[in-house]
Amino acid sequence: xxxxxxxxxxxxxxxxxxxxxNREREHTPLLVFLHEGLGSVSMWRDYPQTLCDAAxxxxxxxxxxxxxxxxxxxxxxxxxxxxxHIQSWQVLPALLDALGxxxxxxxxxxxxxxxxxxxxxxxxxxxxxxIITLAPHIFVEEITVAGxxxxxxxxxxxxxxxxxxxxxxxxxxxxxxxxxxxLNPAFRQWNLEADIVxxxxxxxxxxxxxxxxxxxxxxxxxxxxxxxxxxxxxxxxSHSPHRDQAAAVTEATLALLRSVGFAQL
Length: 265
What we know:
9 helices; alpha/beta; Pimeloyl-ACP methyl ester carboxylesterase; AB_hydrolase_1; AB_hydrolase_fold
């Protein structure tokens, strides 16, 4: 069941859409799912439930401000190059506090959410048990800019907007927030390499060999900065490994959890 909690974001009250998975397993570890740049609670489909069932744990899925059924972005608001830092260092901790989550949690992030998982783990080591990051970005590549520019054309043509309208109360809110931010010339300097130094928790970084938004330099770069990072590079896989290669992602995630003594496995 989807619920809502009220937070303060950018000085304004915002309603956050969230959903508990296996909430009755209150003494099990928690996986928090961080969605992609155009994602939401519903866009994860059934993968979070499938993974939590396989791991025997609880899950928390939520839509960031501007996404899903959470409070939309104001039409005049322009997200700046630090928007993922704000989501990772301000909004996510506030959400965990509002929901009474005190114990360290596991973060499972995709794309923008994968970058958020890294940022959160670096800043809040005491609140992070480990992270699984799928198709994350730690710097901007030409392939990324080209892919986002192509998404803009698809949205203006109407097909992409129609699809997003099934998952967002106001599809213009997430799309233009994300698209304008990444295509802003100032975003070319965006880089997380200095921000993720010192991550101590277990890290699994996953990327498809056919990723249309990034090269393997992204997860190779994570391993260079955080040497204990485990990498999984998937053939026949695009920007969404949990959709294209769900079984492989699940097995790699469970293997990581087993390796650190995850009690349920």
